[in-house]
């Protein structure tokens, strides 16, 4: 039942416990207890609302920053990643495979603000070898949600 609850909550964190209980052939109390237990165990780490800030009239700049890091003995990339996580501009940090070690997502009010973060705070970190910044110009899909509305039908109507 846990996996089913998680899959449902991942798509709709405002889930109605009654609806979820019906879908899973259970009762609200059992669902609520299971969710509370998963929160306690940190399986469920938080709840988030996805906002289209452009439509809300607030300009924000997002960037993906690829970071090469010199790993530390016995700690690998963890110490540097944890340090990067502490900056309020940073929204996510991922350890990755490939040409770079970390992917850092950053949010700011302007391109200049994000650029200053990279050059003034991120690049000077002792174990950071190099960075490459990619500014996000438009989001088409975020956290599994389409950020645009598809036309119901893209086919042209056929008339006799």
TrEMBL record:
Residues 65-138 form the Transcription regulator AsnC/Lrp ligand binding domain. GO terms for cellular component: cytosol. GO terms for biological process: response to amino acid. SMART domains: HTH_ASNC. One of its GO terms (molecular function) is sequence-specific DNA binding. Gene3D superfamilies: 3.30.70.920, Winged helix-like DNA-binding domain superfamily/Winged helix DNA-binding domain. It comes from the Bacteria. Pfam families: AsnC_trans_reg. This is Lrp/AsnC family transcriptional regulator. It comes from Sporofaciens musculi.
